[in-house]
Amino acid sequence: MSFFTIDWGLDPVAFSIAGEDIRWYSLLFVCSILWGWFFARWVARREGVGSEVYVPLIFWVLVGFYLGGKLGNRLFYSTGSFGGFSSFGAAIGIFLAIWVFSMTTGRRHGISFLWLMDRFMPCGIIACVPVRIGNFCNSELVGTPASLPWGVIFERTGDMLARHPVQLYEAAVFLLMGILMIWLYKKRGNSLPTGFIAGLSMMAVALVRFLTEFVKESTRNVDFGQFSLHTAQVLCIPLFLFGAGILLHSVRLKREMK
Asked: Whole-model pTM?
């Protein structure tokens, strides 16, 4: 039984303009995009990359982010529509956009896929923070009933159970994780193998998502006979392995160059 609870019933609509509702989620989503823009400019100045390179890259990353999120929601969660948004689909869209860019414009400027991923992953982790806070404002992706002394009653869901504020759990961990990765990039970026930060970031994100899903209400499960996992947990597995592969590959190349 939770003895420290918060009644949460925030109206998802922040305000209206000309009859159009502007939601807190939309405002926070825009904050993520602005954060990505300013971070990319900071990295470009730090690395001496011109605007003719990073501006098109940001554009294609945003396209990959949006289309991947929409397609992923339909493919992974079988919604039958393009409503909703999948963070895993968005990640795949971003990876593909960066890969295509690295094989075209990036190759002409001597910029590799892993070099870009080392710099985009810390940015992307922190970009998840406003999105998760937006989920909290929407009273969506709620946690399971809390078995700990704290909880949040999401009044707009129609029940009065104190639940884990799992959206805030993820937001807090992603913020700390992103700050750590940016610190690694600033302090050790030149000495670490190319791809190390990207691989480590992917593994950390996959692990956090896998664990937090245990206290999140499932929208869809995958049955493995004796047990089942949330769809998000299943998607975490290839993400973790992909990150591990990149990390090991980067370390191996670093050793071969010595």
From this structure: 0.91
